[in-house]
Amino acid sequence: MMTRDPVCGAEVNEESAVGDEVQFWGMPYYFCSSKCREAFQREPQKYVEGESEEELSYDPRMFLGDM
Ligand SMILES: [Zn+2]
């Protein structure tokens, strides 16, 4: 199964990912290299928010979230 490296955006095969996955907010993340993994571990929120920003702008539910 392919997933995305949140740091550089490369597609990563979970089964051949470098090192262990990193758990963040209950989700496993996989990386193309140990450099990307270390960068993510340093500032996971930076990469998770950056990646989901685009999708959230298309999701009308986000506007109901603060009520
Ligand atoms: Zn990467």
The helical percent reads 25-40%
Mean pLDDT: 79
C-alpha Rg, in Å? 13 Å
> Tally the helices: what do you get?
2
Unreliable spans: none
- Major sheet strand order: 1-2
Topology, number of strands: 4
The overall number of domains is: 1
Distance between the termini: 37 Å
What does this structure look like?
With 67 residues, the protein is of the alpha+beta class. It has helices spanning 34-42, 44-56, and strands at residues 2-4, 11-13, 22-24, 27-29. It has one domain. The chain contains 2 helices and 4 strands, in the order ββββαα. The strands form 2 sheets. Strands 1-2 form a two-stranded antiparallel sheet. Strands 3-4 form a two-stranded antiparallel sheet. Helix 1 packs across helix 2. The N and C termini lie far apart (37 Å).
Short descriptors:
two-stranded antiparallel sheet, 67 residues, binds zinc ion, two-stranded antiparallel ribbon, single chain, alpha+beta
Give a nutshell description of this structure.
The protein has 67 residues and is α+β, with helices and mostly antiparallel strands. The chain has one domain (2-62).
Give the secondary structure arrangement, pairings included:
Blueprint: E1 2-4, E2 11-13, E3 22-24, E4 27-29, H1 34-42, H2 44-56
Antiparallel strand pairs: 1-2, 3-4
Helix pairs in contact: 1-2
